[in-house]
Hints:
Distance between the termini: 67 Å
Number of helices: 19
CATH class of the domain at 20-87: Mainly Alpha
Largest sheet: none
Structural class: mainly alpha
Number of strands: 0
Amino acid sequence: MKQDDKSTRAEENIIPFIPDGDFYFTKGVEAFQKRKFDIAIKWLRKAIEAEPENLLYQCQLSIIYTEIGSYHLANQLLTEVLETSGGHYTDCYYLLANNYAHLGLLNDAKKHAESYLNKDPNGDLREDAEHLIELVTSDDQEEDEWEFEEEDELLVYQETVFYHMEHKAWDKALPLLEEMTVLFPEHANVRHDYAYALFFAGYEKDAVDMEEGLLEESPGSLHSHSNLAVFYHGWNQRKEFELHIHALKNVYPVHEQQKLRIAVTFAQTGFHEEAYARFRAIDEKQVKNHLSYYKWYSVAAYKLGKPSKALSIWEQGCRWHPVLAEEEGPWDAD
């Protein structure tokens, strides 16, 4: 027999290895157990792509999101699993309850824990669900129930609006913000967010007028100076936007969210050196659920001639926020 014939027959007998969902799932679980969460997320997404009908994969991915503090993404997956399965994946109720408890939404946590116990009274998570209910239920709950409900409602609105604004879904954020200005008039931040969404939804003049009015009410407002700096920069009115930028240069907040707001504002308006310094002072663990942190930090780094640093930040952002990969990288930013 010729050597070529042997090689041909050997090739014909080779069975190609085609990874399936279980292969990716196993890899994801192994990475999760080693606390390599970004790698685990990658493998679980591949498992879901390979077998989208296998709801177990989505449940496991939600657990990883919970572990890294991305409760909104976790809840979104769990809700989809319950809808798809007709509520048969009862563990999802407990997982949702746990996530709501972490978010401080105590009524929602209690409601979902009770749903788990009603649907699977002898389930493996029964004791955990009962313990969770005990934690979120206080002796004077009836007296303070209305306060919890209002607080829960506000947090639900804030979580949803934050998600839409981070993803530039202004048409979805605006109606919710309009409702919030009526329901929670004492929360000034709602009006600032509303003005910001108005501007980028195309109602620029209304947004500027509103924010100027808010600045008159509170002349030292960090939110107003940040928004107006971005608005006037968008209008190419250099004198005006630099006036508001100057008001921010000597402000060094304690809270990470406020630090991030100033850093992003500097980056959006072209003050990249100031932006980079502010980003470096932020604790990433506390803002990793903000897509804007990774986007504008990478832009600032790139504009300062640090392409490797910019790419590293961008890739990290894409791991936590896959939608970021659909946007232009820092090298294409204006």
